[in-house]
## 1
Amino acid sequence: RSNGRPIARPEPTLARYSELNDGGTPVGPRDRTTSERLIAELHVIPWSHTSKPQPILQVPLTNCTQEASALNHLPHLLVVFLLTAFTSRHAVAQLSAFPGAVGQGAASAGGRGGDVYRVTTLDDYGRTDKPVAGSLRHGIESATGPRTIVFDIAGGIELARPLIITHDNLTIAGQTSPGGVTVWGYNTSVNRAHDVVIRYLRFRTGDFNAQQVNADGTPSSPPAGKGNMDLRGDSADCLSVVASDRVILDHVSTSWGMDETLSVTTSRNVTVQHSMIANSLNDSFHNKGPHGYGSLVRGELTAADRAANQGGYTFYGNLWAHHTHRNPSVGGQQNLQAGQSEDERRSTDVNLINNVVYDWGAQPTHRNNEGLVRANLIGNYYVAGPESQSGRIFNENNKAETQLYQDANWVDGDRDNKHDGALITKPLQRISGFSGTDKLLGSDAAQPFGFLSSVAEHVIAGDAAYDRVVSQVGASLWRDAIDTKIIHELQTRNGQIIDTQESLRTPTGLLAGLDDLVVKTRPANFDQDGDGMPDDFERMHNLNPLDPTDRNGLNLSDQGYTNLEVYLASATRAVPEPNATTLSLPGVISLLFTHQLRRRN
């Protein structure tokens, strides 16, 4: 890498790679040497049926001078921020949703401590149908308390209608599938729920059931469209979070939305990390016409929230690819409520950190209409593609105040099919539209907004972020043909914005990524007590494979993660972090690291 090392370790490489359908070479992880290990870097012991009993955590220790060396490779302003943001020697780390969770949504408890539901069928059911036991929808709708949903099956779930998640304290652990799960045909939404965790799933809405709608929003007469003709284009995101709190989406893959592809609106404390947001459908069934958009991001923050740096969003380590606009688009509250003054209009705080944006059309990252926005735009990599109309990375719209801190961003804007981007040293040449009360920050006198603290220790250089996205983004435990194609297009600077998923069918009619999904099921003796942990895993770690209650024990973690959560982490080749410690760097202010040392007996 040409610049920078991570301040905290990147995740282990997660992807398994398959051949490209077009006969190209496999897309595999980038070969890379291991840099100096940071304080108490954790190593994973991948679990399998043939593994021998071993300790779950291995914690090699180094000295703090290596951490100081790592700081030297970060942009100066981030070092200043880190040294001033974490000064407490006795801070107590909050238990995150899972090891590696960052940002405001990392506070999500998910289904911790609750029951377990096993998905055993790919079937779905409509509103008037009898619920199908063992289905994903039934697992969500039948929850009466905290719940973790695991998968004993792999393949595609063709939705019979939109999948709306309204239950609180829910974890959907796609990493437990024997080969990955794709949810397709309708949109999925987390709506008015709190403490939701969704990991390692693929969401492909498509226009399979699109309803033809007139420009004024009324349905066409006679009815027209495709399939069931009941999915409006203006409500057909792939995945959205609406009016919810403490939600984290991790390693999800989304594509073929007719509105946006993955959006977060009117919510609080949401993280979207390591996720692929690709190939929205542009000239499809949206009543406004061409609408190939990536992500709409709108918050719900009050002045008190802003003062406390609480309630915002983080987008970390994601890939946006092949959208005309909204990569992402950020705005505040659009319409005032009765009796609400302009001064009370709610705003958005957002971290946009270590993402890759590829082949935007007219707009890269940009503002969206009303409401104050404060954003940290740090360590991202923008790659112009065949459809990109400019080399700018952020556009302001002059309709409302924007306060943007930008630093350490990269751009490859020449569209020459070579990976030869560079660090942005003259931001005014890449960022446009700032005037009036807008603030473009990033000088030696400026610091990131305080809400960066939820992710600051995980910021890496933009070129390193690009490498990590290539190897790990999306539902990368089992990259399907669609995700593999998108990554190949990013690497070769090819591909295009599409109008329908049907344009991706082969001459023989195969829609790769759906028609070629392989159905796999777990054997009956995989998890006899149904607690979500394989019997072999339980035996290996001295748990009882016939006692379902031990899933909520704390035998395997000193930090408060349940035994089930430790297994879920091991299924992604990550492990719970050990207990907090505070280290002092020579000659500087104390710095709290999340690489925390395990208690020793």
## 2
Amino acid sequence: MQQCRWKPAYTPTTIHAVSLLSRTRPIIRTMIIMITTMTDRATCPVFITATGTDIGKSYVTAGLVRAFIRAGQQVQALKPVLSGTAHPPTDADLLMEALRERPDADDPDLDEIAPWRFAAPLSPDMAAEQEGRRIPFDALIRHCAKPRTGQVLIEGVGGVMVPLDQSHTVLDWIAALQPRILLVAGTYLGTISHTLTALSALQARGLSADWLVLNESPSQPVAAQKTASTLTRFGAPLPFILPRQAEEATFDQLFRLITAEHRP
């Protein structure tokens, strides 16, 4: 895979101003993106977000890392913001375990994968406040935008609207990066409303999910296919259903779906 030619829509000096403008004036955001970005969508990072916490972002991300490795393709995975480190194993541990399966790769660097780590299992703004720290939004964007070889998978934190600091959410993070978006949802009772709400939040910022993964929940009121049918009826992307304890072949299918536009 060629080195990513993507770059984020905003430079660090304009991230905050554009973030504020884009909340009330989507047309301004769209114009800035068109003027400042020449994006090759096939080489953009994939941002894995979710409808909430404990939905399966790390499970999906780690599974995709292994699928890329099985296919002989270079892959990087980041979990830049991580809370709950007092209760291992953490999401970063799961990603590092998967990354260690890369042939001839150096041992994953925790500070590179998850530079902002907090002990308390809280939203990042609260977890950081407890430690007298903060997450500099411009530094977060710069870290995610660094040139890296191969496909970059960026795992978010919690759901789309989780606060990162006093004025930014995960949605602002996604909007600043302009990545391809994979939304992970569950199949539990209530997921339809949660999923459509997350998709609406993205749409309100001029964004859309490139892929929707239904990660089967421990308990579900109806078959996952029924949930998928309802979601598509209300305009959601056709969901990819990920069974519990999915086999490698299923993640390989998801890999092919994500990398389809790489092929001529």
## 3
Amino acid sequence: MAKKSNYYPRTLRRKKWEVQRDKNIKVRDRATLFNLAVGLNGYTVSTGIISKELNGENIIARPLEVDEYMKVGIIMQKNTKLSVYGKVYVEALKEHLKYTEIL
């Protein structure tokens, strides 16, 4: 049996990332997130890589004025290769990063 990762739960418990609001809603999939954000006039923190073709005009990215940064990467098992879709994702990410300010 594979060892259970503690990475995700630990990151959720970090106090410095918690924002006190009247109501916080946690979701795990993009469709639910965007439906709630539009319907409730909500927001989320993300990489800012948004596709108008995929998500429509109601989902926009605005930069935050904060000192923190987000590190984006991929994790793969040893001796595995990226799928065709994985390669397309990595190339699209690299292309987007050409036009993004890197700290």
## 4
Amino acid sequence: MGVLDARSSRDENGTDELCEEERAVVEMFYKAKFGVVNILSLTKRELATESSGSKAEFPKGTGTGFVWDDRGHVVTNNHVINDASEIRVRTASLPDDKYFTAELVGADEERDVAILRLDAKNGLDMPDPLVRVKAKQQLFVGQKVFAIGNPFGLEHTLTTGVISGLGREITRKTAGRPMFNIIQTDAAVNPGNSGGPLLNSRGFVIGMNSAIA
């Protein structure tokens, strides 16, 4: 649902009217969003022309990822970039007409995880890493969580919810393989959210949005 904004201007720093909990969420989001990326996968298809064998690149799909380190490594779902002929990555700090190209450096199809590396040859500054991870984090059903992603191409959308269940097992429709130890949440996740981070209230990554049950 979209609601018209009645304010004449936006001031991300003007949070005085918010309660303490809301200010904490706003601060967490604006720190995290610069490490969350929009991923566009392209695929080559043959053109129906007289020139046999000619191909062009078409959008295969969109997804989300998050920057793992200052060397430009990005974590996402394997199904977001699988069989892509070119991978383009946009960050929150880039102008609308700019993007990184990325190469696949590793993937685990069974766990639906892929690691990309951004190409810095185009002169763009590498984005700041998002990742804040503790070696061991105890999770609880009922704990508040936050998902940042690009549902339906709407970049850097924040949704909130709670952990609804832990240790779930699901089977992906595309892969047909079971996935184990899944975090179930009621935070809204839609096409384009895949590969985005699931965060706790402190902004630590506790999981990766991977499937819509």
